[in-house]
Write a structure and sequence with these properties.
This protein is of the alpha+beta class. The chain has 4 helices and 2 strands. The longest helix has 14 residues. The protein is globular, with a radius of gyration of 14 Å.
């Protein structure tokens, strides 16, 4: 999953040069980071985390398409796209990976156990 996202990010980086895409190996960044939380995406603006996507489901699943990832990142505040229609330009149908209720449920589950630095609470 992380390799797939890295592949998509290499393409998105050329389309959104104002956005920086960085990869850090979890084990080198946070000792004992749970593998179940991979991949983990942190979206920053002006040095502050504005959103995060934690785990496969939150990142669109094992078969996430580049355009689906682009939509999720835009919704998370990583960059701005002109419109939802812009995502259809390459002919790939876009679906959001989960409903708003599922997003809230997932977010609530994750925030109950870890603080903003990934440490168990």
């Amino acid at each position: 999953m992380c390799s797939l996202l890295n592949h998509h990010f290499s393409h998105l980086a050329t389309k959104f040069p104002e956005c920086k895409f960085l990869m850090i190996l979890a084990g080198q960044c946070v000792p004992n980071y749970p593998v179940s939380h991979l991949p983990t995406l942190f979206i920053y603006d002006s040095g502050c985390i504005i959103n995060s996507l934690i785990g496969e489901k939150a990142c669109g699943g094992r078969n996430v398409l580049e355009d689906e990832l682009k939509w999720m990142l835009a919704q998370s505040g990583a960059f701005v796209i002109d419109s939802y229609e812009a995502l259809y330009q390459e002919g790939t149908p876009i679906t959001t990976p989960r409903s708003e209720q599922e997003q809230e449920d997932y977010s609530d589950d994750q925030s109950d156990h870890y603080d903003n630095h990934g440490a168990e609470v």
